[in-house]
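Notes from hallway chat w/ T.B., transcribed later so I don't forget. T.B. wanted the structure written out for a chain they're using in a teaching module, and asked if we could keep both sequence and C-alpha cells in one place. Agreed to drop them here.
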Amino acid sequence: MTSPIDFYFDFSSPYGYLATARVEEVAAKHGRAVSWRPTLLGIAFQKTGQSPLISQPVRGPYFKHDLERMARDYAIPFVWPENFPFHSVAASRAFYWLDDQDSALAVRFARHVFQNYWGEGRDVAKPQQLADATCDALGIDADAMLTALADSAVKDRLRAEVDQALAKGIFGSPMFDVDGELFWGCDKFGEIDRWLATGGW
C-alpha cells in the first residue's frame, strides 16, 4: 500500500492556500492520499533565522505581485487580509482536534479557513472569530471547539506536530513529503508529478 503525501502548511501562508488548489489532484493521479498537516512557520523562522517575505526589502513587493499572478493562474479567489500575517495557533489546534475525530471534516475545515482568510479577507485569528467563520457552515459544535482550543491535550498535540515537522526538516509552507523526499513550494507540483511517475531520480 502506497503511503500518503504529507502536505505541510501554515494557515497564514498564501502559498499554502494556493497549494490547496492542486495537491489532491496530483496525489490522486498517482493513487495517493494526502495527509494534511498544519504547522507554525513562526517557530520554524525562529529556528532558521528566516523572516516573513512581506517584510523583506525588494522581495516583499515581488512576493505580493507573484502571489496575485499565481492566484489568477490557479483560478482561485485571492485578497490581501488586513491582518496578514496572523498567528495561526487557534486554527491549527482546531484542525488536529477535528482530525482526531473525522479526518475528512478536518480537511473541509482547513479549506474553509483558507477560503475565509485568503479568498475573502476574513479575520480568523482569534478563537471566536474562527468559530464564527467555520462552525455553522461545517456543522461543528462551536462551544465544543472553543473548549478544545484551551485544552492542554489539544495544545500538546499541536506542539508535538510542530516538533515532528521541524525534526523532519520542514521550514516553509507549503512543503510536501513524498516517501521521504521533501519538496518546497506550490510551484513544485510538476516535479512531484514526475517524481511519482518515474519513481524518482
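Follow-up for T.B.: The chain is about 55% helix and 10% strand. Might be a good example for the class.
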